[in-house]
Amino acid sequence: MNVEGIRGEGSNLQWSGETNCLVGVPLVALASIAIECWRVTCWAFESGHDRDRIVARQTSRELNSLLDGLGFEIRDLTGQPYDPGLAVDVVDAQDGGDSAAGSAKIVETIVPIVLWRGRVVKAGQVVISREGGEG
Is 38 exposed, middle or buried (0-12, 13-18, 19+ CB in 10 A)? Predict the structure, then answer.
């Protein structure tokens, strides 16, 4: 996954685009819808009930199609190397894992990064695993 263009300062991020609204709805509100859509998608694949999965996947496809058409992109960084310049807040840092000494890896995305037309609208929240290096 390419993580270029998703750098920012976590919750201190301030978006300064040419407009703060799209189709009369604040971008921040649409970003919240994008996050909830991501949650439905994640839940749909974890649900143990076939009927729940079918309904949730269909809902997720429709919402993602709508958001894609409006120029939104949802980035789940789970499994990616952590870079302090990414537009995420680290909500927890665990020691250990399979990261190389002195490096960190994103082990869980709590809230994904939301981009609109390639610009960060909402910073993400992640859990990282770091390996302590000795020099």
Answer: buried
Domains of the chain, earliest start first? 19-130 (2.30.22.10)
Q: Please check the confidence at residue 92 and state whether its pLDDT lies above 90.
A: yes
Q: What are phi and psi of 57, to 5 degrees?
A: -65, -40
Q: What angle do CA 65, 38, 51 make, to 5 degrees?
A: 85
The structure tokens listed for 104 are 């960190």
pTM as predicted = 0.68
In what helix (H) or strand (E) does residue 22 lie, and over which residues does it extend? strand 21-22
- Mean pLDDT, all residues of the chain: 78
CA-nearest of 75, 72, 77, 78 to 33 is: 72
